[in-house]
Amino acid sequence: MFTQSSKNRSLLPAALIILIAACFAFAQQPAETKHNARPDKLTPSAPAASDKKALYSYEFTQPEFWVRHILIEHGADGRGRITFEKKNEETPVVESITLSPAALSRIAALWESLRFLDSTEDYQADRQFAHLGTMRLKMVEASRNRTAEFNWTHQKDAGELVREYRRAADQAILVFDISVARESQPLNAPKLMEQMEGMLKRNDLSDPKQLLLLLKDISTDEHVPLIARNHALRLIKKIEK
To answer: Which residues make Cβ contacts (< 8 Å) with residue 152, sequence separation at least 6?
Structure first.
């Protein structure tokens, strides 16, 4: 017959086993997901037509081009997002975009000149240039919306509107490529500075003054080659003239 103390000693291992099992089960429960832990990494949202007076978009598609697809969506304030896909890359890139006041003024004037929602004009020229890619202009305002698609046009304002959006897209993609180079491919920085200078000379940038802060940052970034830092300083002087 066991004494009271011997009974307690016999029960102690069982109690420990139960406690350890409970702790182990608790440890295996998945931690709560923090969906908003990195808000800067969330996909930028396109402006909603209900939030703004109107929603504007420009889209370009040519599967054989290096940048095969571009979509810019923005509100009346020029804020929105750009989505683009490069050839041989499966995942599209989505970035926030803000048209500068100067660029937005030009773009808004062209939409107004076209009287886009009130017009039924076909902007497609008689001659087809499908190899240059398909362009789509779209505007949504309350319950009204219209999309115009063409690959070549002789309509002056429609053609200029497409060029404005293409400049905005090229500038945004260049900024993205520079950010990638600075993070993981610094040896690409000199080539990208040369690319920026070429675009500046050809008037292929939406608003070069938007790049001044980036260039000043590059000029002091010791992670990129010295040749790229010096080139950034020269570009700053050209833009500020």
So the answer is: 124, 125, 127, 128, 129, 132
SS3 state of residue 139: strand
User: For residue 42, with 0-12 CB atoms within 10 Å meaning exposed, 13-18 middle and 19 or more buried, which class applies?
Assistant: exposed
- Over residues 25-30, the mean pLDDT reads 40
**CATH assignment at residue 118:** 3.30.1560
Q: One-letter amino acid identity for 233?
A: L
Q: Is residue 15 part of a domain?
A: no
pLDDT attached to residue 43: 62
Its domain, for residue 68, covers: 42-156
Residues 6 or more apart in contact with residue 6 via CB below 8 angstroms: none
**Res 48: pLDDT:** 60
Give percent of the chain with pLDDT exceeding 70: 79
